[in-house]
Amino acid sequence: MKLDVIIPSCKSKILTTLCIRSFENYKGKYEMNYIVVENSNDSSYKSDIESLAENVVWVQNPIEYNPNESFYASKANAIGIETGLKY
Predict the structure, then answer these.
(1) What is the pLDDT of residues 11-45, one digit of tens each?
(2) How far is residue 82 from each of residues 7, 23, 44, 65, measured CA to CA in Å?
(3) Which residue has the higher pLDDT, 63 or 72?
(4) How many C-beta neighbours within 10 Å does residue 16 have?
(5) 47: how many CB neighbours lie within 10 A of its CB?
């Protein structure tokens, strides 16, 4: 069985790495596809993330940060998930 996992990220190399490693350690018989949606211009750790598993898709999706917007993190995650669903 195949599972697609959408991982919204914003300059979070460590958390994204831990997420993928956790799924890889416990996936059992499932084939995992990881869709990492980076909600910034930072692609410095793209190759590190792509090397964690066979099926990693990196989507660069920069979102402008508005410090006055109280729901920025929720909005960024929602946009990341919506973007990931396209893949």
Answers:
(1) 899 999 999 999 999 999 999 999 999 998 999 99
(2) 11, 21, 23, 18
(3) 63
(4) 22
(5) 9
Please state, as a whole number, how many other Cβ atoms lie within 10 Å of the Cβ of residue 57. Answer: 14
- In single-letter form, the type of residue at position 8 comes to P
Q: Report the C-alpha gap between 17 and 73 in whole angstroms.
A: 19
Beta bridge partners of 32: 3
59 sits in which H/E element: strand 56-60
DSSP assignment letter at 20: H
DSSP 29: T
Structure tokens at 6: 């959408």
Q: Of the candidates 11, 31, 28, 8, which has an alpha carbon nearest to the alpha carbon of residue 19?
A: 8
DSSP bridge pairs for 57: 35
